[in-house]
Automatic annotation (TrEMBL):
GO terms for cellular component: plasma membrane. It comes from Rhodovulum visakhapatnamense. This is C4-dicarboxylate transport sensor protein DctB. It is a multi-pass membrane protein. It catalyses: ATP + protein L-histidine = ADP + protein N-phospho-L-histidine. It is found in: Cell inner membrane. Residues 370-580 form the Histidine kinase domain. The keyword Ribonucleoprotein does not apply. Keywords: ATP-binding, Cell inner membrane, Cell membrane, Coiled coil, Kinase, Membrane, Nucleotide-binding, Phosphoprotein, Transferase, Transmembrane, Transmembrane helix, Two-component regulatory system. Its EC number is 2.7.13.3. Member of the two-component regulatory system DctB/DctD involved in the transport of C4-dicarboxylates. DctB functions as a membrane-associated protein kinase that phosphorylates DctD in response to environmental signals.
Length: 587
């Protein structure tokens, strides 16, 4: 009695369970990754659009403020150029009260500065008294004002790097330009208010030059030059920031190494444009807050899964311990089942031997029936030749009688060959195979059937090719197949008024012998090749001819088929492999 044996089925189930658990964990991780990725993409798009919309609203507000400031200051030069006090001061060259007057105006107007220049370009009155006496003859706002009859707007770069914005207009006295009034527009206050938000804002003129910016060093540069102006550490920070923004949309630009969203709008004043750069940090913070919650949830779910799996492993371990006794009992039952199976196998061997003996007896019975069937043809031919020889001897024609006796001798030899060949029906054989010309086999079969053919008026047509049709076969067995087909054709045409049998031999991919008759045809073609199936009268046959012929053709490597003709009769075809030169040499 052997010890407890480990069943392969027991070990297979835990292994499969481990793989199922691993697969479930992998699926959970994939779902988590897909969820986080999808959430990140969706929220990034959503928050980006909302941030862009707010930035565009702010730009519209900023643009409106700038335009409102410029429009309010644009009417001041026209009003002051018609002020009678300033005109009298220019006429009398008395500017003692002019500066005080301008200071009182600047509070009401809200302009950055006011200046009054005489016809020589000298500042004679100003809200900033330190500029009085300064000669600004070459200043653009003075030169352009003298050239034009309207208010002139001038943007000029100051020494500090910032830009000044002025409206200027000539004051006419007695149709002569006696001076110029200059109004400064305070747009720098917008830069200070814009700097209080997270967005970077710039205003460019019609040539793309930055004239207002929350970053002072950007003023006077083009937009691309301003964005590229950064120190070396900012480049490293830019690379780090670009790596950190893995889930954000592609940035429009980088400001101080930080990815930003660019929004641009037109200011309806002299081709100016306003551009804002909104950092993606606020978007990323909002998205990361949601992603952190999702990741936390999946982490808790994964931790719970591991906890349940560990509990399941503990329960399985306890179950394995309880199953030890059951496994021993199962092993004992298996041993008993093995012993019973061995006894059943011995009984099966005895049954197989009995069945084999029964099969041998059945084969002997089939062989004896086949021998009696196949010998009927030569015996019938011998009977015919003996009757003919008797008549020839009675008529004193011994030479012709001797030829009949010679044919009888050939038939006796053939009967011996048939009995030898019939012994091989129960086994596969190939020792008697030889290259044969099927034309000679057809001629031999017709010679064998000559006595039966002479007793009836049957038209036999032969269509044989001129070239040899070579096959590898046993002559006796192949002729026997042809004889069986001819005999069946004779029996089928027994009731035909004009019986006819056609023999057609063709050579293509296979050697095909067609035996066609104009008899009654085939009634049950599905059972045609079954042993002992026949439509003949008792005593005319036992129904083994076609079954034996089909087996012989199959042994020769071919096939025997049958079908009903289109009009009347039946068609049998014997197909055998063609023996070409290469195959013949190999054989």
């Amino acid at each position: 009695m052997s010890g407890p044996s480990r069943s392969p089925y027991r070990s297979a189930y835990p292994l499969r369970g481990v793989w199922i658990v691993r697969l479930a964990v992998c699926v959970l991780i994939l779902i988590a990754v897909a969820t986080v990725w999808t959430t990140n993409t969706w929220l990034t798009d959503r928050f980006t659009e909302s941030t862009r919309s707010r930035a565009q609203v702010r730009m519209a507000l900023y643009s409106g403020n700038v335009v409102s400031e410029l429009q309010r200051a644009s009417v001041v030069p026209l009003l002051l150029s018609r002020d009678p006090t300033l005109i009298r001061a220019l006429e009398n060259v008395d500017f003692s009260q002019s500066s005080q007057l301008l200071i009182s105006y600047v509070d009401e107007i809200g302009a950055a500065s006011l200046q009054l220049l005489d016809d020589t370009g000298r500042v004679v009155a100003a809200t900033d008294r330190s500029t009085i006496g300064t000669n600004l003859r070459s200043a653009p706002f003075y030169v352009e004002a003298l050239r034009s009859n309207d208010t002139v707007f001038i943007t000029s770069r100051a020494e500090a790097g910032n830009f000044t914005f002025t409206y200027s207009r000539a004051i006419t006295v007695d149709r002569k330009k006696a001076g110029v009034i200059v109004v400064g527009v305070d747009l720098a206050k917008f830069e200070q208010s814009w700097a209080g938000i997270s967005d970077a804002v710039i205003v460019t003129d019609s040539e793309g030059q930055i004239i207002l910016a929350t970053e002072p060093r950007w003023r006077g540069r083009l937009v691309n030059e301003a964005l590229d102006a950064r120190s070396a550490p900012s480049a490293v920070a830019r690379a780090i920031q670009a790596t950190a923004d893995w889930g954000a949309l592609p940035p429009d630009a980088y400001v101080m190494g930080e990815a930003v969203m660019r929004n641009e709008a037109r200011i309806p004043f002299r081709g100016w444009r306003i551009i804002s750069f909104t950092p993606y940090v606020s978007i990323r913070d909002k998205v990361n807050a949601v992603l952190a919650l999702e990741i936390m949830g999946f982490a808790m779910l994964l931790a719970l899964s591991f906890y349940l799996l560990s509990r399941r492993a503990q329960m399985k371990s306890l179950g394995y311990q309880r199953e030890t006794v059951e496994l021993r009992e199962l092993n004992a039952r298996l041993q008993r089942e093995i012993a019973e199976r061995e006894r059943a196998e011995k009984n099966l061997e005895v049954a197989e031997q009995t069945l084999e003996q029964s099969s041998k007896l059945a084969a002997l019975g089939e062989m004896s029936a086949a021998i009696s069937h196949e010998l009927n043809q030569p015996l019938a031919a011998m009977k015919t030749y003996l009757a003919g020889a008797r008549l020839l001897l009675q008529r004193k024609r011994p030479d012709e009688a001797l030829s009949s006796f010679q044919r009888i001798d050939d038939l006796i030899e053939r009967m011996g060959a048939i009995t030898r060949q019939l012994k091989s029906y129960a086994r596969k054989g190939g020792d008697a195979f030889e290259p044969l010309d099927m034309r000679s086999c057809v001629s031999g079969a017709l010679s064998m059937m000559e006595p039966q053919l002479k007793r009836r008026k049957v038209t036999i047509t032969r269509s044989l090719p001129r070239e040899p049709v070579m096959v590898m076969a046993d002559r006796i067995r192949l002729e026997q197949v042809i004889i069986n087909l001819l005999r069946n054709a004779l029996d089928a045409t027994r009731e035909s008024p004009v019986p006819q049998i056609d023999l057609i031999l063709s050579s293509g991919e296979t050697a095909t012998l067609t035996v066609r008759d104009n008899g009654h045809g085939i009634e049950d073609i599905d059972r045609l090749f079954e042993p002992f199936y026949t439509t003949k009268q008792p005593g005319d046959g036992v129904g083994l001819g076609l079954a034996i012929s089909s087996g012989i053709v199959a042994d020769l490597g071919g096939r025997l088929t049958a079908r009903n003709a289109r009009e009347e009769g039946a068609v049998f075809e014997v197909q055998l492999p063609i023996l070409n030169q290469d195959k013949e040499a190999a054989e």
